[in-house]
Design brief:
12 helices; 317 residues; mainly alpha
């Protein structure tokens, strides 16, 4: 990224820090506190009571940054709809947890229906308003495949899958914010290479917001982003992959998210079919924690893995 984009990222981070300084005390007063899962690692019990719903602050910082940089291009309204729509769904989930003082908010079915509905509206916009091509590009090759209407089914899988994968990654202090920041940096570069400056600008702003959020979210966390933040960030990544037609490349750039999601899928499948666990605990970051790794070591290792995945993804592009 050139200096202009770094300045945008840094200013967005500063906005996030200012919003965080003002908003975290408000979250405490509203008693929006994290309830830790009983089945989670014992070391996480001390995190119970930490303010959550920090994603609300992230979305506020995003809105302020969008106004500040006058991001009003019609061609990214659908992308912003996806981000804020998933944030609203996450807010509903977080709100139920906060009100009823429990770890579970919306049921899995309710959350999935909401995600599919929002993804469907987004795909409708791509198809009827933006008239986007339905061609799938194979990374590091000249191969293309026109999927026709099936492309939109794939698009919905990408959106729902990525948002849930980022949500699963958000289990350690700063883990999701750091890995998403790395992926956003990659998409800033890709969008610029395609001449999609508005998409690059949104990605840069989200990069800065993630970095600013780490001031409060790095271990020991003073606030968690909650589903409000993780679902929105995951949907944003998916939207950028679809907008730049790098759907398959997202598997590489978001390799950490893929590994986290696969660990859960494999664990559940293995336990239900064989009665045996593959990992000590899933998602994957808990496996390493229970193996004796400290939380900070796991976080830094996963960040490094995210950087490696992003570099490989950019190289393949």
């Amino acid at each position: 990224m050139d200096m202009t984009y770094w300045l945008i990222a840094l200013s967005s981070a500063a906005i996030m820090i200012a919003v965080g300084l003002a908003g975290i005390p408000l979250l405490r007063r509203l008693n929006a506190r994290q309830e830790v899962r009983e089945e989670g690692p014992q070391s996480h019990r001390r995190k119970s009571g930490t303010p959550t719903m920090g994603g609300v602050l992230m979305m506020a910082a995003l809105a302020i940054s969008l106004v500040l940089y006058r991001v009003d291009a019609v061609d990214i309204y659908w992308l912003l709809f996806l981000v804020f729509g998933y944030a609203l769904l996450g807010l509903l989930d977080d709100g139920i947890k906060a009100v009823y003082k429990r770890n579970l908010g919306l049921t899995a079915r309710q959350k999935m229906l909401g995600q599919l509905l929002l993804a469907g509206v987004f795909c409708y916009g791509l198809s009827t308003v933006e008239h986007m091509t339905t061609v799938l590009h194979v990374p590091y090759s000249n191969l293309v495949w026109d999927l026709g209407a099936a492309y939109y089914a794939l698009a919905m899988v990408v959106i729902v899958g990525t948002s849930n994968a980022v949500n699963l990654t958000d289990g350690l202090d700063g883990l999701a914010a750091g890995t998403v920041a790395v992926a956003m940096a990659a998409y800033t570069w890709i969008a610029r290479m395609q001449g999609m400056m508005d998409v690059a600008l949104v990605s840069t702003i989200l990069l800065g917001i993630c970095l600013g959020f780490l001031v409060f979210n790095y271990h020991p966390a003073k606030v968690f982003m909650g589903d409000t933040g993780s679902l929105a960030l995951g949907a944003g990544l998916a939207g950028m992959a679809l907008w730049t037609h790098t759907e398959l490349l997202l598997i590489v750039i978001g390799g950490v998210f893929v590994a986290e999601a696969l660990s859960v899928i494999l664990q559940v499948t293995s336990y239900k079919t064989r009665g045996k666990r593959i990992f000590r605990m899933s998602p994957l970051h808990h496996h390493f924690e229970l193996g004796g790794w400290g939380e900070v070591r796991v976080i830094h290792t996963f960040w490094l893995a995210a950087i490696l995945c992003a570099c490989v993804g950019v190289w393949l592009y």
